[in-house]
Design a protein that fits this description.
The structure is a homodimer. Chain A is mainly alpha-helical. Chain A contains 15 helices and no strands. Helices cover 62% and strands 0% of the residues of chain A.
Chain lengths: 288, 288
C-alpha cells in the first residue's frame, strides 16, 4: 500500500532533511528566523489536508486545509509552495486506481495536467483563502491583475467568482515570475525531471535529494530569490551553482553558508524538489 | 483544532530532531545502520495508524497499523516503543471530548490508565501481530512466559486468547525489565514528568527536549541498554548522565559521541521523551 498523502508528507520531510541545500533550511542549517523543527511541524500539520485531497475533497479545499494545518503547527509559512506543487500530484496519484484512493500509483505529466485542467472556481476561491493563513512572499502583480492580487486573500474571492476563474486560470499569469505557477502550466516539467534524476542516482534518497537540489538551482534562476533580491542576484546564484563541482563537498558547503549568511533562500527550488521527491517515492512504491 | 494523531506524529519528529540525545539518532547524529531520515519516514508511515486510534479503531489494531506503516516506510524498526507509549495517550486525548475525536484535549494519568484498563484480548493479539512487521530487541522472557514470548509474533496469539489476556495483562510482566511496559503499568509516570519539565522550560520545545532527554537518561538506567549491554553498562550511563552539567555543551556532546561510538543507544529513554513531548504539545494546544 502506498498512500499518496503519506508519501507527499515524506517528500516534505526528506526535502528539509536533505543537506546541503544551499541557502535553505536543512538538517544542518537554520535561518535566523526559521528553524528546522518548524518544517517538521509544518509537515505534520499539513497531513490532514493531504489526506483530504487523496480521499477526494475538492482540490482547493484540501489545499487550504493543508496550509491552515501547516501554519497552525509551524507558526509560520514553511511549505506553501511545496504544497501547491504536491496538491495536484497527490490527487492524480489517488485517482483512477482500482485499489482505491489510498493505494497510489505512478503518475505521468498528463495525469497531473488533467487535475490542473479540472480545477474549478471554488478551487481558486480556496486558494485565495489559503493566503489568509500565512504570509507568502509574492511579486508585485501586473497592473491589470490588482483585483486578483493574492495579498488580498479572501477579499479577492468575489472578483475571482465574477470572472469565473479556475485555480489553473489564476496561476497562469504568475508563470512568468513564479516557477511553482510555471510547474502548473508546463506539466510539472521540472518536478518530473527532478524525479528522474533522483531515481537514477545511488545511495539514500535524502542524499540524492541534495545533489538534485543543486542541479535545480543551476537549471533556472530561483523565482523566490528573484522576487526578494532581484533578477541579477538570482541569475548569479544559478550561475555559481552551475559552476560548482557537486563532488567538492567543501565548496558546496561554503556556498550554502554564504547564501544563508546573505539571506538568499531559494525556496522555489525547494518546492520543486519536494515535487520531485514525491514522484520518486511514488515510483519506488514508497520503498525507503 | 488539535488533532491528537498529528501531535503524536509531531512528537516523534521533535524527539528525533532534538540534539544532542546521547547515544541516539538525532539531527546531528546517525548510527552506522540507522540514519536520521529513516525516523522521518517512520513517523510519516505511522500516521495512518495514529489517525485510526484517534478515530476510535480498536487500540491494538491501530497500533499494529502504525507499526506496519512505520516499518514499510522506514524499512526498519524506528519507533516501536515510542508508538507503544503514544497509542493509549492518543486514544485518551481523542476520547470523551464534546468537540469530537479530532479536537484533542489535555489528559491526566487517570485518563491514560482508563485506556490501559480498557484494553482487550483482541488488542493483545494485535500487539503480538505487530512484532511480525519488525525486529524488536527484547529481553529473554521469564521461563513461565515462553508461550507469550513476543518473538513468537502471531504464533503466540492462540495462547494469548486461551488465557484471556488483555494488552495490559501481557505488558505487566515486562515491567521489571522494560520501562515502556512500566509506563503502561505505572500511569505513564515518567512521560508525565517529562512533559512537566518540557512545559516548565524556555526556548524552542525541540531544545528543551534535548535537556529533558538527559534528565530522563539520568533518572533511571535505560532498559534497552540493559537488554543489549547489561545492567552495569546501563547503570554507568545513567550515573554519567546524572554527573553531567547540562549547560556544558562540549561535555554533553562528547558523551553523545562516545555512546554512539560504543553502540549504546538509550532507545527507551527516547520512547518516553516522545510520550512527554506529546503530552506537552497537547497541553500547549499544539502551539509551535
Amino acid at each position: 500500500m502506498r498512500s499518496p498523502a503519506a508519501l507527499a508528507q515524506r517528500a516534505l520531510l526528506l526535502e528539509v532533511a536533505a543537506t546541503p541545500t544551499p541557502g535553505n533550511v536543512d538538517r544542518e542549517h537554520d535561518l535566523p528566523d526559521l528553524r528546522f523543527d518548524r518544517f517538521l511541524a509544518g509537515a505534520s500539520g499539513a497531513r490532514a489536508g493531504l489526506d483530504a485531497i487523496a480521499l477526494g475533497s475538492p482540490l482547493g479545499e484540501g489545499f487550504e486545509q493543508a496550509i491552515e494545518g501547516m501554519a497552525a503547527a509551524a507558526g509560520t509559512n514553511t511549505q506553501f509552495g511545496a504544497l501547491l506543487v504536491l496538491a495536484p500530484m497527490v490527487r492524480a496519484a489517488a485517482s483512477g486506481d482500482d485499489e482505491g484512493p489510498a493505494a497510489g500509483r505512478s503518475i505521468t505529466p498528463a495525469d497531473v495536467e488533467a487535475v490542473v485542467d479540472g480545477t474549478t472556481v471554488d478551487d481558486a476561491a480556496a486558494f485565495y483563502r489559503a493566503f489568509e493563513h500565512v504570509s507568502v512572499r509574492v511579486d508585485e502583480p501586473p497592473e491589470a491583475m490588482d483585483e486578483l492580487d493574492v495579498r488580498r486573500g479572501a477579499e479577492a474571492v468575489p472578483d475571482v467568482r465574477e470572472r469565473g476563474l479556475t485555480l489553473a486560470d489564476v496561476l497562469a499569469p504568475a508563470t512568468e515570475h513564479d516557477d511553482v505557477a510555471r510547474e502548473w502550466t508546463e506539466g510539472f516539467e521540472r518536478s518530473f525531471g527532478a524525479a528522474e534524476r533522483l531515481l537514477g542516482g545511488t545511495g539514500p534518497l535524502v542524499d540524492r535529494a541534495a545533489a538534485v537540489h543543486l542541479d535545480l538551482l543551476a537549471e533556472r534562476p530561483d523565482t523566490l530569490v528573484e522576487t526578494k533580491h532581484g533578477e541579477d542576484v538570482a541569475a548569479d546564484v544559478a550561475e555559481r551553482a552551475a559552476a560548482l563541482d557537486p563532488a567538492d563537498e567543501d565548496a558546496v558547503r561554503a556556498f550554502a553558508a554564504e547564501l544563508c549568511d546573505r539571506g538568499i533562500n531559494p525556496g522555489t527550488t525547494a518546492d520543486i524538489l519536494a515535487g520531485g521527491l514525491f514522484l520518486a517515492l511514488l515510483d519506488r512504491g514508497g520503498a525507503p
